[in-house]
Every structure is written in structure tokens, then in C-alpha cells.
Amino acid sequence: MGPATTDAPTSASPSTPPPTRHGTKELLLDAARRNMRQYGMLVALALIVVLFQIWTDGVLLLPNNVTNLVLQNSYILVLGIGMMIVIISGHIDLSVGSLAAFVSAAAAVMMVEHDVPWVLALVLSLAIGALAGAWQGFWIAYVGIPSFIVTLAGMLLFRGGTQILLGSRSLGPFPEGFQKIATGYLPEIGPVTNYHNLTLLMGFALLAFALWQEVRDRRRQQKYELDVLPKNLFIAKCAALSAAVLAFTLTLASYRGAPVVLLLLAALLVGFGFVMRNAVVGRHVYALGGNQAAAKLSGVKDKRVTFLVFVNMGVLAALAGVVYAARLNAGVPQAGVNFELEAIAAAFIGGASMSGGVGTVFGAIIGGLVLGVLNNGMSLVGIGSDYQQVIKGLVLLAAVGFDVWNKRKVGS
Known about the structure:
The protein is mainly α. 74% of the residues lie in helices and 0% in strands. The two termini are 20 Å apart.
């Protein structure tokens, strides 16, 4: 199979016939089937953007609206990353919205009522999230209670804790530094131009890194004689990636530059993407979700991995709560309502499988953006919130249905 996947022609031998046109066609079809889950939602996101860009007479992709899309959906994207990892491990977490609300309330009490410096309040908030995740992870991993039950109990517990801390009041405002976590922008540097210079530099650096990684991964796959995309498709993929990154960069740079929370999301995407692809613990999470019994026989410490997955989810839920509170500039008792449903939907729309063991961090971002663009686009064209819920439900059902259909086709 290896020689048929390389770009350069290879010398044929009696035992290894050269690839034929039929073989190349089969290779293309096989590559399409393997990448359908990964790129299907990316294509769907592009189509949704084009649809609403036309429907809104160009308002959707105005620089200020694109920035608002990032700010409005940042906390859901943070939760989506953590939820994707939880689902890959074969579990679910119903408590993340209530935990985000509880942490935002705790941060508000610390800063407003007790004058705790905002940096210390931020650290303590993340620590609270880690402790909450450890609490739930203990019951799930070491006691053996199903995650659905434990996190359902956690949802009630943390929602009640939020009400105890805040009652019916809102606490604010917060220090300016804390607010900038969700509403700040990168500073201006360099000469005065029509664009935000630092955003341009970071966008070009991101593009160079992404292209380098694509080339490196392709060469590594070829080195080990694994299947790769044909050269023409690989070039088209890189061209599409370049166009998307450049368009996004120029759009942000033509307004106020990149928001601070976007850098936070980029750091999470790169960091967790690396861990899930390359680190031992990431491979163990996939193995555990794919087949727990086989993973245990292979030496995977399933209890510890599950425990760490929920600790990580607790920290990310706390971070989402902090971002949400910073955006509102207040701790409110209604925070986090339905956040867990949005995060779960983002993960499944982004390619997660109900059976576990499948999904990517990048897919969670794509799923969250699909929901965000749908919300924003439907609001711009005047679709009511009731119909918005119906449409988002149908999108989720279609995504999971596509996953089931795709697995049946691959299996056959």
C-alpha cells in the first residue's frame, strides 16, 4: 500500500506492481471516507457562513460582527474543548454549566465583597474548578458510579451553590484587568496603518506554523508508509487553509485587532491538540474510550486517566465561568444555563462519537463555531429564539445521524 501513496513514481518489481488508474481512484475514495468525519463539518461551516453572508446582505462577515462572534462564543468553545475530551474517553459531563456559574459567583464574591486582587481571584477560581473536577472524577473513576449520575448530581449541587453565594442579586463591577480577559484586545504597535499590525504579524506566524505542521505530518506519514492525500489534494487543502487564515486575520486586523480571549482559545487549541495527538496521556484517553477492556490489558491506568479527564474538565469549566463573568462584568445567578447542552452539541457536531474513542480538539472548535454562526446569523435575520432552538436541534440530530451513517459505510 505504501508505494501507492507516495508522490514520486517508484520502480516496479514483479512482486509489487505499479499503481494503476483504478488503484489511484480507490486511494482517493479511501482518503475521502477516512477524512469525511474530519472535514464534513468544516465544509458545513463554510456553507452556513456563505448562506448567512448572503442572507444578511454582507453583515455576517463585517469585522465588528466577526469579533463579536468570537467574544460571544468564547466560553462555549472553552467548554467544548473539555467536553470533547470527556466524550472521547467514553463519558459525559452534565455539570459544566452549573460549575461555570458557581465559579463565576465565587470569583464575584472574592473580588467585590472581599477585595481579593483579580489575579489571585483568577487562580483561586481555577483551583475551585480543579477541586470540583477531582470530586466528580473520584466518584466516577475510583468508586465506579456512572458519569451521567455523578455529573447530574454535580449539576444540582453547583447550581444550588451558586444560589447560596448570590441569592437573587448580581455582584459587580470587576477590576479592569479582570474584564479584559473577555473584552480586551491586543495593543497597537508599529507605524499607523489601515490594519492592526500585531494581529497581522500573529496571523502570518500562525499560517506559517500551520503549513509547516501539515508538511511535517505528511512527510512523517510517508516515512512510515502510511496513506496520505494525493499531492493535488494536499496542495488544495493547504491553499484553502491559507485563504481561511488570511481572510480571518485581515478581518480582525481591520477592526480593533485580535481579542485577548482569542489568544486564550488559540493556546488551548494548540496545547490540547498536541496533548491529544502526541502525548502518552492523550493516546490513553483515545484507547480508553475506544475499548476500555483492551486498554486496561495494554497497561493503561484507566482510573487515573478518567480522574485526570474530569479534573481537566473542571478547570476548563472554571475558565469558561471566568470568561463569562468578565464579559458580563458581574456574577449573576442565571449564569451557565444550558451551557452543558451547548458544549455537548459542539462536541458531537464537531465529530465526537457516542461510543467514545473518536474526535479532535479542532473538531470541538468547528462544532462550537457552527452553533455560534447559526445563533448570530439567525438573530441578524430576525428568526425568533424558539425557531432557533428547533433549527439547532435538527442540526445536532443531523450531525449524529451522519456519524452513525458514516460508521456503517466504513464498516461495510
